[in-house]
């Protein structure tokens, strides 16, 4: 369990990991929360309105979200949101113990940047899973019974399409916790 001493910082590696654990977990939690809250409804609506403008926009956004590297998007958002508009800080981290407002203010830009990729991925998986579920006999039966369309979508289609969606979210959480350190260097989060 002894990870040794850092050559650069001249301190225990376990201490250095402990210092960076809160910012990493905070950024991962906020990123996945944003991604799930945006992507799942988008995917369900895109599947419900298959072939419509929202469906085509989601597919376009997914291609863009997968194509643009996160660090390029980070620099574009830093330039636009922080430097040009002055809405959010460029760097820094505020502990959650110091208040939720400052914590959220400092984490918003990196979390939004990271969530673009996960929104694209989760929304696409949600769309595909819900589209498969909408073609099943139990959906036709639920509609024939006269259930409201929202209930059919959420209670029947989304509930039965949840396994792949939850799997992708779980993989996203693991990737975020393991890979956030790279993005933290772009935003200079300690």
Please provide a written account of the structure:
It is a single chain. This protein is an all-alpha fold and 190 residues long. Helix 2 packs across helix 4 (100-134), helix 4 (100-134) packs across helix 6 (149-160) and helix 5 (137-144) packs antiparallel against helix 6. It is built from 7 helices and no strands.
| Helix percentage range | over 70%
Oligomer: single chain
The total count of helices amounts to: 7
Strand tally is 0
Question: What is the N-to-C succession of helices and strands?
Answer: HHHHHHH
Largest sheet entry: none
Cα Rg? 20 Å
Strand content: under 5%
> Which runs of at least 5 residues are low in confidence (pLDDT < 50)?
180-190
Structural class by sheet pairing and helices? mainly alpha
| Arithmetic mean of pLDDT | 87
Shape descriptor reads elongated
Distance between the termini: 24 Å
Strands, helices and their partners?
Layout: H1 13-48, H2 53-67, H3 70-84, H4 100-134, H5 137-144, H6 149-160, H7 162-187
Helix pairs in contact: 1-2, 1-4, 1-7, 2-4, 3-4, 4-6, 4-7, 5-6
Characteristic key phrases:
mainly alpha; single chain; disordered C terminus; 190 residues
Short note summarizing the structure:
Helices cover 77% and strands 0% of the residues.
């Amino acid at each position: 369990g002894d990870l040794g001493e850092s050559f650069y910082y001249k301190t225990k590696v376990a201490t250095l990991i402990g210092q960076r654990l809160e910012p990493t977990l905070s950024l991962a939690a906020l990123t996945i929360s944003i991604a799930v809250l945006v992507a799942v409804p988008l995917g369900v609506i895109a599947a419900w309105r298959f072939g419509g403008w929202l469906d085509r926009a989601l597919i376009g956004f997914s291609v863009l979200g997968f194509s643009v590297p996160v660090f390029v998007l980070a620099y574009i958002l830093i330039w636009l949101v922080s430097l040009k508009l002055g809405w959010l800080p460029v760097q820094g981290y505020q502990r959650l113990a110091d208040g939720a407002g400052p914590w959220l203010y400092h984490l918003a830009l990196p979390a939004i940047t990271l969530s673009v990729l996960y929104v694209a991925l989760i929304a696409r998986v949600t769309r595909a899973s819900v589209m498969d579920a909408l073609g099943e006999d139990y959906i036709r039966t639920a509609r024939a019974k006269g259930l409201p369309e929202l209930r059919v979508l959420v209670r029947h289609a989304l509930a039965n399409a949840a396994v792949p969606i939850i799997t992708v979210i779980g993989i996203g959480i693991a990737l975020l916790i393991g890979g956030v350190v790279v993005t933290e260097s772009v935003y200079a989060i300690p």
